[in-house]
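FAQ: What does a multi-protein file look like?

Like this. Sequence, then tokens, then the next protein.
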Amino acid sequence: MQAKITIEVEYEWKPVINDEGKKYSFPMRFKEFKRGFRSYYNFPAIYRWVIRKNEEIIAVYLGEAENIGRRVYGYLNPGPSQQTNKRLNSLFHECISTGLKVELELLKIHKLRIHGYGISPVDLSSKHLRLLLENLMIEIHRQNGYVLLNKDVEETVPKSCREF
């Protein structure tokens, strides 16, 4: 017997902004951006790092985090075993040195229905739900032709900003 599952998501990407309305951009330190950033952004999230040239998105990295404040800290201060954080930290610094912007955005879900059941409010504390939404967003970005920086998703991830 065949089964059918439908997923309906209404969403938008929201830039991380501080109290003055300024967008967070890499590698701004938390204290410079928003007082109490790590404690304020102490929640699970789906996020994307967006590399922009003249306000146009030219590349994206998508991820999920149990604690977005801690995850961003890891990109700014990668540990020796954090290969993805080290790779992106280096790439982002190179992009900035060539005049590109690297900004952080969070997924805001307005409506989520899976198999006819509404999930509201969306509880991203569930790792399974975060992974489902992260992979759904990766596929949407792929279908829309974005350059993806997710190494486990793309076979040919750009190693340099000059490849964009």
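And here is the next protein:
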Amino acid sequence: MLASALAGLTVSAALIVAIGAQNAFVLRQGLRREHVVPVVAICAASDAVLITAGVAGMGSLVADWPGLLVAVRWAGAAFLLGYALLAARRAVRPDALRPSDRPPATLGATVLACLAFTWLNPHVYLDTVLLLGGVAQQQEPRWAFGVGAAAASLLWFAALGVGARRLAPLLARTLAWRVLDGAIAAVMAAVAVSLLLGG
């Protein structure tokens, strides 16, 4: 059982640590110290739900409905392109960059953005339901693998959200925020383009 859980922890960590739209959003919220706990909770809980679906064998059902992933892909690309434009706008407008100089986003707006980054991203379904679900079917017991995979998600998002505060002194200057928002815009746009190209 422990070996299966450790396998889930390792495989899940390898999939979620890659820089992507969701991770960039969590990092930015952590740096702004804005609604970090709800954001981390939504990301980790969403992953747990999707991993559970994959472990339960939902991957074969998703594979039989390719139109569903296509619809999510287009919606996700549109959302990410919009967010990329907002990040690029922040990067070219130095007067709107420092977190302390901008009014905080409402909890509702942050929650909606976090849900969109999570559930409108086809890569999330591929990583959790299909890939982790597929590997889980080869583990014994597979539920221990799922618990390990969900634990990796929780640990990663908590570390990213809370750990980002340590970077705050490095980002005290406007130029640093311009670079960060420029990088976020590039990541969001790249992911959106890959979705549009079917990648």
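Q: Is there any per-entry metadata?
A: Some entries carry free-text notes. For the entry above: The radius of gyration is 17 Å.
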